[in-house]
Amino acid sequence: MPTIAMFYGIIIRMYYAPTEHNPPHIHVYYQDFKSIFNIQTCNIMEGELPSKQTKLIVAWIEIHKDELIANWELCQNGEKPFKIKPLK
User: Which of 6, 25, 73, 80 is buried most, with the most CB atoms less than 10 Å from its CB?
Assistant: First the structure.
């Protein structure tokens, strides 16, 4: 599962396999926390994350939603997703 972005100690990854389940989502890692965020709604689907990091991820998803959806489509075709700019 490649890393598509890293910022403020947060690692964001996306599986690339045609069998990956919908809805489009990202896997987020921060310290000992793991969560899955829905790209379309910006909601946590699974796991948990501290409030501050959740807000950062939601902002990042909103900024990069089109790129994330494009990455999701690549992943559904078994292609490796591209890197996306981190928050600064």
Answer: 25
25-67 tens-digit pLDDT: 999 999 999 999 999 999 999 999 999 999 999 999 999 999 9
Burial 42-67 (b: 16+ CB within 10 A, else e): eebeeeebeeebbebbeebbeebeeb
Residue 66 contacts residue 54 (beta carbons within 8 Å):
no
Residue pointed to by tokens 């928050």 = 87
Secondary structure (3-state) at 36: strand
Provide the residue ranges of all domains of the chain, joining segments of one domain with +.
Answer: 3-76
Flag whether the pTM goes above 0.85. Answer: yes
Q: Which residues touch 21 (CB under 8 Å, ≥6 apart)?
A: none
